[in-house]
Amino acid sequence: MSRKLRIILVSVGVFILVVVVAPFLIPVNQFRPTIEEKASAALDRKVTLGNLSFSLLRGSLSGEDLSIGDDPKFSPSAFLTAKSFMVGVEIMPLIFSKTLHVTAISVRNPQVTLIHNATGQWNYSSLGGSSATANQTPEPAESSGSSDSPSGLSIKKLELKDGQVDIGSTNSQKRSTYDHVSISASDVSVTSKFPVAVSADLPGGGKFKLDGDVGPIDQTNAHSLLPTPSSTSVLSTCIDWLA
Q1: The pLDDT value given to residue 10
Q2: Engineering a disulfide at 103: which of 40, 88, 116, 212 sits with its beta carbon 3.0 to 4.6 angstroms away?
């Protein structure tokens, strides 16, 4: 066996060993309290996660039992639940410095409840409300951009796949249910426009589709999206129509 071939075989063996062993060497569940805390602070809603696991080949964290609480003015139940989700992460910082850098989020089969009150306000309007208010106070600029604050939030890819959305009001128990709801967005940022695609099966048959750009987001009111080309809120108008 030539020296070059031995080097190749050893390299392949080391790679396979790293792929197999690395997930067991990284205690990913130690990130769970931090993720829950930061997500809860960013959304101004209680966020809870189940067990987490790590895949080196896919470069992702997988999780179970995601739950995002609702605005208590609307409901004591969850705003969103999902049995499984996946978070894309940067591998090197995670392995060598135990630092979590999120690049993508994918939620499968989410169950979402959208509710409006008598004045037309929706339960999603207050998402990130407290954190947005806190960020209105100017702070000294730092040399390196931080993604820990909502204004620095940037996600390359965000997906909700094959979900169910129930739409209703606070003064009625009746709900309109939309199945096979999928939402995809890329280069998500609260400070700039980003493309969004939405599709769903309508309760009475037929399909609903929406493609367009959304943003920037008014951090004092998540209801006030500024999509293009129209100056009105396309997403809010569509939800009002669907309800």
Answers
A1: 61
A2: 88
